[in-house]
Write a sequence for this structure.
């Protein structure tokens, strides 16, 4: 849509703008509501980088609006029969938009939001999976062997299909373990206590309090994941108790508010990781140096320097 992949660059500085705004949005979103507007206003006034980033975000808004209008024209001209998200929203708007108050402006907003949503969280998860594999050569070799064998015997095809990838047990274990050790969202997922209050784990919370759980805490629970919960060990997912561990994972939230992009993200992860392992060899430039992380809602990693070598297919 924007040409990022075609030109290998951050066109319009959109990604840089999003990174610049994340601290502002995160801090503003976690402050008490009576301070939020004051914080946002003061930040815009005193920070040139935030003002510049807001300009880039407005360009993204215009770009998403243009995409919606272009899709309208394609559908009107019956150019294709593709059933994508924009088409679905346009159909809802046409069929019952007035009844449910779903306007053209809502379509623009949803399209704009979809550009932001999912990219960072999925990238953080893939970074974690590959990083921990590089730091654990035995696991890396075992996963490579599983993928190579699956290609050889026809269990998976190239490019990898999601339905095939999820059948590889060690791949599933590595993906689960990478996401467990470094959940993409680094803050709590708050819920408001109802009018009658709530008692959780023996503690009573008054109405209107905000309570939440943090995956970076829950997913290190030694009662669930074992005494070595701080260690990357894909084997734990085959030792029993996998169902209980999966139920404890908060990578995509839980319950009625589970991330609506969960299936898309998992599909991308399961398709990309085995493809990368099959075609390339990754190793850390300096194994003695650990990554750095910066937690502004998305728990992003930096300072991961890697050597990448193309594999001869079928080689170790």
């Amino acid at each position: 849509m924007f040409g990022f992949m075609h030109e290998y660059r951050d066109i319009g500085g959109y990604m840089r703008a999003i990174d610049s705004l994340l601290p502002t949005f995160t801090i503003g979103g976690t402050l008490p509501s009576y301070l939020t507007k004051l914080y946002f206003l003061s930040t815009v006034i005193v920070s040139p980088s935030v003002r510049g980033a807001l300009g880039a975000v407005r360009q993204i808004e215009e770009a998403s609006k243009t995409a919606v209008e272009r899709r309208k024209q394609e559908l009107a001209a019956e150019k294709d029969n593709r059933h994508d998200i924009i088409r679905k929203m346009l159909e809802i708007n046409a069929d019952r938009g007035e009844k449910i108050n779903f306007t053209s402006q809502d379509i623009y907003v949803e399209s704009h939001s979809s550009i932001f949503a999912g990219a960072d969280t999925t990238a953080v998860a893939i970074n974690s999976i590959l990083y921990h594999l590089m730091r654990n050569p035995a696991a890396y070799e075992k996963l490579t062997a599983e993928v190579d064998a699956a290609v050889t015997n026809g269990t998976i095809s190239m490019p990898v299909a999601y339905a095939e990838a999820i059948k590889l047990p060690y791949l599933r274990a590595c993906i689960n373990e990478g996401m467990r050790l470094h959940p993409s969202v680094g803050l709590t997922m708050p819920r408001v206590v109802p009018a009658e209050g709530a008692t959780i784990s023996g503690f009573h919370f008054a109405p209107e309090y905000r309570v939440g759980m943090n995956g970076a805490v829950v997913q290190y629970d030694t009662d669930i994941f074992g005494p070595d919960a701080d260690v990357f060990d894909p084997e734990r997912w085959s030792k029993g108790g996998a169902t209980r561990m999966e139920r404890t994972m908060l990578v995509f939230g839980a319950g009625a508010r589970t991330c609506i992009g969960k299936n898309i993200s998992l599909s991308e992860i399961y398709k990309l990781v085995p493809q990368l392992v099959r075609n390339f060899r990754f190793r850390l430039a300096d194994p003695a140096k650990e990554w750095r992380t910066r937690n502004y809602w998305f728990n992003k990693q930096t300072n991961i320097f890697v050597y990448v070598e193309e594999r001869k297919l079928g080689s170790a």
Summary: The longest helix spans residues 48-76.
